[in-house]
Design brief:
The protein is α/β, with parallel strands linked by helices. It has a six-stranded mixed sheet, sandwiched between helices. The chain is elongated, with a radius of gyration of 31 Å. The chain starts with a helix and ends with a strand.
Amino acid sequence: MTRSTSSTLRRGSESQAAQSLRIAAIDIGSNSIHMIMTQVEPDGGLVVLARMKEMTGLAAAAFPKRLLPRDSIERAIAVLGRFKQAALGQRCEKIRCVATSAVRESTNGGDFLQRIKDELNLNAKIISGREEARLIYLGVRHSVQLTGHTLILDIGGGSAEFIVGDAHQASVLESRKLGASRMTTQFVKSDPISDEDVAAIRAHYERELSSVSEQILRHNPTRAIGTSGTLEAVALLTAAQANDGNSNGKDDAVIERGPFQQLLELLLKSSAEQREKMPELDPHRRKQIVAGALLVDELFRRLKLKKIEITKSALREGIVVDYLARNVPEMTIRHRIPEPRRRSIIGLARRCAWHKSHSEHVAKLCLNLFDQLRSLHGLDNKARELIEYGALLHDIGWHIAQSSHHKHSMYLILNGDLEGFTPEEIQIIANIARYHRKSAPKKKHAAFQKLPPEARRIVCVGAAILRLADGLDRSHASVVDSVRCRTTAGHVKCNIVTRLDAQLEIWGANRKREMFESVLQRPIQFELARS
């Protein structure tokens, strides 16, 4: 269940925050764009760090023209840019973004999503009405204890979602084109709304809700929960109406049928100018609140509801919960590997079906050699880290093909979306993996040559040591426990510590010593350590 931000952050330490995944979820809705920023704690708890919302009015022009206007698109792009910066400021590692009714029905919706990708590097995904209902269910279920069959309602700008579910599954997932903005554009032609317009919109609700009402009533839900800006606005107005124009902050979480009927009468008589004087009502909802309230009235009547409880958890929370459910292995890695850079490396290795035991053993031997040869190569711990990562990823090219797998490894590293690294660091790691076998760097190798001299030195030393470590695990059986190196002015003597027969490993290392001797300008000898 969602906990308060302040109390959780006071209890959590900085080290805990470093281990916890932070996810931002953005909902590009028909009326507004919402974002929630969350932190997933090691115990699986979901903490809401912040919420953001800005009205964009995409639906106002999208229905019925099915065309997103240029000014609305520009406004939405600007909002998404601000949201992205806020998410990065909160150290959110993942930003999930979905678009709903207005975008999915517009002829230029694809162009809008492409601009989001090109200008903001955000991958916004259009979801269907049924998928929207499913995600709303997940979001509500995460924050509200569902006992028995519960009706969940969401009235957006373009569509309305109807869900029946319990703590385990959803039995009804329906979406209808009954959003408040769409209905206002289609049916509300007068101000205040005329009896003829009311009759037309009620007749439309009658036609559209017949089948879905039957589905809902078959499950006999014992509770109704509402989520969305329209229902929140109705709850605020109902509370204010019941308390002589003052919302007390307590009754806003429920819409009682009796007080709502009084509000509906008021709204049906009100003009847009009069609704402008209602402080509880967002300016962007003043035109469409009447159509939304008429839908609420229809639902009260048809479904025999006494009240609708309001929750803030909705589509955004559902996006986060769904992501976590699909990425359980990543969460396991996150708890086991708190360092973000190492976690990113291991994540790429896993996606490429790496040979875990071999790669980890080679990396261990590589660091063993690096540490004992510091006086020879003179590199620092930053270089050590990059060399270790190159060793861990050196064989991921097998994922593509055995032939030239070192080149495939380089490609996968360069295009593996490694997080937490500079472009130059990724180039260094990729080049180290590239040169773990076959030819050493050459002048014609553009990717290597474009690196600055210090980076090229790390690549050469790292690849030279990696070749030896790879040779010392020739059998992929982790035969060599460790190495003991002694450096003199004339050579390097490397004693192999093992409890098993390591002749194949010594043979493998000897076959790969050429680059080491060229880069570090010392011949190297391998011998079994005396027991």
